[in-house]
């Protein structure tokens, strides 16, 4: 019953996380797009009122006229809409899932003794340390003199994030490291909203209500953090779905794969941001960043392609070989991959893959090969599969998966 309850909590938590994430990312992408499409107002009364840019759009059967003030309007409107609960709820639901799966079940999803034999409290403490430490270091850099030099700051952040990816992949299981890296980026993103963007906006509103001249520095800081968030978004989305693709987190150099995919996501997003300003370049957007991102993805895919499994050239008789393989799978895999899993914490077979019969094993040989070759399964090697057993199953598949 506990495993069944955890499954429902996971399902509902993921659903909420997805819904609020769509709302947050949608609003974030829209405002980045809007900022980059604003044109200088043509009407003199708008310029005199302090409008720095405006945009006309048509959507849903109506016309919209968006205007952005250089600092603030002369008089605040009665109703002012804020955007922040989308971000907060996304992080809260994400942290709930992180705690439910990767911390509460750290011995399954986070700890891999083959990487580092951590205790459960140590693994959780290190994970939380990366969430907090990542934000503190990032925020300190943005507030330092380096924060005024975006290119230098961006290069330094790229180096530090690469170091974090390397460290996480040498502390946790590949799956856990990827999710922890995404959680760190997501924490930085929501902390930008909570500690910088929203307080700055509240100060602008407070200044207007108190009759003071608003300080434009709050708008500039908020814009900087908002732009950083948009570059973090695609890498965060990548690691959210990475647990379904063992070829990435299960690779020998999974830290390098994580760095490359993160960089590719940032480059592709940079092209879209540049494309928003195509009107300033006669409608043209140089393709170099998106081309570099796509080529990087292709290179990673090429390097991760499955290699032929080294096995004996003289295979055993088919029946004998399959009997041995079936015994290994029964002992090391069927605890999870059965109609009714016996391994604690699993109410149903992962991804619906059942391996408790000869027919089921033969049906899933491709998936078995990928999971075993990447060492993603058995998860956390909870069933203590030996390297000889792993090699025997892979060799059987290489010989044609005969029965």
UniProtKB/TrEMBL annotation:
Keyword set includes Metal-binding: yes
Domain called Cytochrome c: residue spans: 313-401
SUPFAM superfamilies reported in the protein's UniProt record: Cytochrome c
GO function term, MF aspect, one: heme binding
InterPro entries: Cyt_c-like_dom, Cyt_c-like_dom_sf, Urate_ox_N
Keywords from the named record: Heme, Iron, Membrane, Metal-binding, Transmembrane, Transmembrane helix
Protein's UniProt name: Uncharacterized membrane protein
Organism of provenance: Solimonas aquatica
């Amino acid at each position: 019953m506990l495993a069944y309850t955890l499954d429902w909590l996971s399902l509902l938590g993921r659903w909420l996380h997805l819904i609020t994430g769509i709302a947050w990312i949608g609003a974030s992408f829209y405002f980045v797009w809007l900022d980059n499409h604003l044109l200088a107002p043509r009407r003199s009364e708008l310029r005199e009122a302090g409008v720095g840019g405006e945009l006309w759009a048509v959507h849903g059967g109506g016309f919209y006229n968006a205007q952005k003030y250089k600092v603030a309007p002369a008089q605040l409107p009665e109703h002012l809409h804020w955007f922040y609960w989308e971000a907060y709820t996304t992080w809260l639901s994400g942290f709930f899932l992180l705690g439910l799966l990767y911390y509460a079940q750290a011995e399954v999803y986070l700890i891999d003794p083959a990487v580092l034999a951590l205790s459960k409290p140590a693994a959780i403490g290190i994970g939380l340390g990366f969430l907090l430490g990542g934000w503190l270091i990032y925020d300190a850099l943005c507030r330092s003199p380096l924060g005024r030099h975006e290119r230098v700051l961006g290069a330094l952040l790229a180096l530090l994030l690469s170091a974090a990816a390397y460290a996480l992949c040498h502390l946790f299981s590949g799956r856990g490291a990827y999710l922890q890296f995404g959680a760190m980026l997501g924490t930085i993103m929501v902390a930008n909203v909570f500690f910088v963007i929203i307080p700055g906006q509240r100060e602008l509103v407070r200044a207007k209500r108190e009759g003071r001249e608003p300080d434009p520095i709050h708008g500039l800081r908020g814009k900087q953090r908002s732009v950083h968030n948009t570059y973090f978004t695609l890498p965060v989305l990548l690691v959210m779905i990475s647990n379904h693709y063992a070829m990435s987190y299960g690779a020998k150099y999974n830290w390098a794969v994580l760095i490359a995919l993160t960089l590719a996501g940032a480059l592709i997003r940079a092209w879209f941001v540049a494309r928003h300003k195509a009107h300033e370049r006669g409608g043209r957007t140089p393709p170099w960043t998106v081309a570099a991102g796509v080529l990087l993805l292709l290179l990673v895919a090429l390097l991760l392609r499955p290699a032929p499994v080294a096995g004996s050239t003289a295979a055993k008789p088919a029946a004998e070989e399959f009997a041995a393989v079936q015994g290994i799978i029964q002992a090391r895999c069927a605890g999870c991959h059965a109609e009714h899993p016996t391994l604690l914490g699993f109410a149903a077979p992962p991804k619906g893959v059942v391996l408790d019969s000869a027919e089921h094993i033969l049906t899933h040989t491709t998936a078995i090969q990928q999971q075993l070759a990447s060492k993603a399964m058995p998860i956390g090697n909870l069933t203590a599969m030996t390297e000889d057993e792993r090699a025997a199953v892979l060799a059987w598949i290489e010989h044609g998966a005969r029965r």
